[in-house]
Amino acid sequence: MSEGQPGGRAQPFYCPYCGEQTIRPAEEQGTYWCETCDRTWGLTFKRLGQPGTSEEA
Q: Where are the domains of the chain?
C-alpha cells in the first residue's frame, strides 16, 4: 500500500462537479477539495457486486 492511500485505493484525478484537476485531499479521510469550484466531497466504497443485490438472506 502506498502512504496516504488507505486500503490501497487510488486517488481521483478529476472533480465530479466541474471536471477540473485541481483537487486536493481534505482533512477528513476519503474527502477531497476542489480549488476551482471550492467544493469538498467524499468517496466511499460500498461493496463488490451488482447494485441492489444482497448476500444476506
A: 11-42
